[in-house]
Amino acid sequence: MRRDALQVPCGLAAALCATLAACAPHAHEPALEGTRARDSTEPAALAEVFPHVRAIPDGGVVEIDGFVPIDCHDPETPDVYLEVIVCARDTREHEALVATGARPAHIHAALLLAGIGPGAPGRFEWTDDGVVRHAPTGEGLRVEILVPGSPELPTDPREWIRDHNGQSLTSQDASGWVFAGSREVMREGRLRYDADGTGQIVGLHTFGSEVVAWTRVEHPDSAVDEPEWLADARMVPELGTAVVVRLTGD
How far is CA 214 from the centre of its chain? Predict the structure, then answer.
């Protein structure tokens, strides 16, 4: 998809224009505790376009630096319920597989730069007949997690998630992810990118503000949908492990 054909929310236009004008690697910000930069195997075509975010312009690939923010290996607290796959730091770390110092709006802009088109987040509509679930829209994305320095291949995050019976999400649900694109909202008298406030980057449950949305619509309120997804200690690395999240257009 051509960049000039993409619809860019006004709050992202300046950031995206600046990136298009200078899309080349530049110095990293100081690394977050628990994270480290990509090693020398990083593909040359990936350019750092924002802090902790790399993209292949018009190449359909975006990578995000992050770390594991949860400890599902503690025998006293082994059950870590999940509601998001990737969140911004200091937001939803207690229920996410990965946290990152990247700004959600920058990830949105990087996906646009990579030539991937956004849609709209999922939502719930309350009617007299019950809850109507509206699925998110947008171009499909493959989400993978890499552990730099590990010989293992990129992992589908669904393999890091289990139910109460120990069965992986992959074995039970064929849903995937789409570039929903979050939305712009009025907050404190200003138009803001919603995910920058909520921290929801790659979703699992449907909050309505995630940049990348899970296509199965599940409500985060346990009164609507009973929680069922937990971090799988057999797969999830130790707390603080540096990881890279790769988003690739389908």
Answer: 10
User: Number of folded domains in the chain?
Assistant: 1
**What is the distance between the alpha carbons of residues 197 and 133, in angstroms, rounded to a whole number?**
24
How many C-beta atoms lie closer than 10 Å to residue 181's C-beta?
A: 30
Tell me which of 9-18, 28-37, 44-53 is least confident.
Answer: 28-37
Q: In 3D, which of 171, 97, 176 has the Cα closest to residue 135?
A: 176
Residue-wise pLDDT tens digits, 80-138: 999 999 999 999 999 999 999 999 999 999 999 999 999 999 998 888 888 889 999 99
| E strands present in the chain | 47-50, 53-56, 61-67, 84-88, 96-100, 118-120, 123-127, 130-134, 137-138, 140-146, 161-162, 177-179, 184-187, 190-193, 200-203, 212-214, 230-231, 242-249
Calpha distance 69→234 (Å, rounded):
16
- Whole-model pTM? 0.83
What distance in Å separates the CA atoms of residue 214 and residue 136, rounded to the nearest whole number?
8
- Cα–Cα distance list, 104 to 19, 123, 127, 225 (Å): 15, 19, 32, 26
Nearest CA to 103 among 143, 30, 50? 50
pLDDT over threshold 50, residue 28: no
Range of the domain at 84: 3-249
Instruction: Tell me how far the alpha carbon of residue 21 is from its chain's centroid.
Output: 25
Any idea what DSSP says for residue 112?
Answer: H
Give 121's contacts (C-beta < 8 A, 6+ positions apart). Answer: 136, 180, 181, 182, 183, 206, 207, 208, 209, 210, 213
